[in-house]
Hints:
It is a single chain. The protein is mostly helical and about 525 residues long. The chain contains 21 helices and two strands. It has helices at about 30-45, 60-70, 75-90, 95-105, 115-120, 130-145, 165-180, 190-195, 210-220, 225-235, 255-265, 270-285, 305-315, 325-340, 360-370, 375-390, 405-420, 430-445, 460-470, 480-490, 515-535; strands at about 505, 510-515. Strands 1-2 form a two-stranded antiparallel ribbon. Helix 2 (about 60-70) packs antiparallel against helix 3, helix 3 (about 75-90) runs antiparallel to helix 4 (about 95-105) and helix 19 packs parallel to helix 21.
Amino acid sequence: MTYCAPPLPGVSLAAPGPRPVPPSPGAGGLDRARARLAARLVAAAGPDGLLRAPCDSRMLETALALRLLTVTDVDPDARERLTRRLKTGLDEGAPDPVQEAAARAALGEYADGRGALARLLGGFDHFTAGRKHLMFRTVLAELGADAFAGLPDPGSAFEARGQQRWLITEMAALKVLHAFGTRSPRLVTEDDWRALEPCALPGPPPYGNHLARVLALLALRLRPRYAAAVRERARELRNVLREDGGLPFLTGMDVFATATGGLALAGAGAPVATLRALAAALASHQNRDGGWGFDRGVGQSDVDDTAYCVEFLRTVPPERPGAGPGPGTETAAGERYLLARQGEDGGFPTFERGTASEVAITAAAVNALAPEPAHRAAVAAAVRFVTARQEAAGPYERSWSLNESNALFRTVLAHDSFLAVAPGHPAAAGAARARARAAARLLETQNRDGGWGHVPSDPSDPISTAYALIAVARTPGARIATARAVRHLLERQRPDGGFTSRPDQAGPRPLAYHVPLLTDVCVLLGLNHARAGLPGL
């Protein structure tokens, strides 16, 4: 494969470095598809070296932004843009019942918030389900699609100590809205107001989260001392609206996309100089605690982003042996961050130690930590956690992704990582069984067109198919399934080399949001695994 793509600033893609193995005669189409995807990823790099991965607008944040601008009576032009976006979204079909109810209420139309919430969360089996029910009912009540008077007494339900910082902000805002909506402002404490104050400051939203900030501003408007600042921040919303006039959930996922995109480019044979440029950009955004957040300026580190950053940095060779601080230093700090968050059950949460461990997040940590022998005990404990969860009865996990295939491919990689470094370990037999079960689930649920959807029976889409392909391509005896999946993807590549897929990310779970660049990243990862697993494909 000839690798040709626009260079990163100051980096030539023709620089010396490892080159891809020449394709076999049957692999030409696959390698051309990989080269076009790799070119798109390199072209997505911004001036600071991170891949730019903006988030599409979403109806929930758009509705809340319209509510904020309406109650503060600012910026009629921005209100008109938000209104048009909501109307267009309703005409095209809202992504879920809650966002439809939010949009209709923000537009002054009738909306049955309780019915919408029942339809959204009726089958939502997750440890956050109770909190989400209270959250969405409060939001819909603020928008007018529910009645504050009909909300149950929340007690300590808004308590978020020990949770991630943006969630603490979010829950404080909801508590204020609930208290004032039920005419019980005495329930709000000075600590609640202090938790919201950072959202009244100029600049990007704290923690890269537009939803948390808009909720905080709606709450802060209820205290006169914050009124002027709230109006100023409301006026600034026009600067962060997307091209379609809507507001996104997040500022973007540039750090996450650079780490995963770096892994994809490494697998596609990108020159070392290109990978070093991406690694240097990531290193410059490492937080003081050794971890990484999902976007530039996000000081809340998390296990998922940190695991991918560690994994990518480890693939990049240093410029000179013994050259001093470099990727190795950042990798070690990232590993310490991960180890400090491992729970007593052996699993890893997304954010803070002591909160619930999750299968997909634990698998990501295993993949980051397994290559280092000093972490073998921690890795074995994590693998046991994943194995036990996979062997338990119940649905397959869908967490920060709406895909079954996301958690399944991560666990397959985690089991492979562990089995490669500790084949004789007492936990190896269980890992092998769990790995076989995960692969069998994917093989059993492949659609007739060769792809996969979010869950079995869903129509196929590129990102779901790419997730599954990563695991299937590594599975002995799955050559036909791999070839069908590759064919499915190649038939759907756009003329510009990219892919279009349905939204896959979830937050607040189970609401979907979309970062288009991640589809290209994940498809390239999947095609790389197919190319490595079946050289003659």
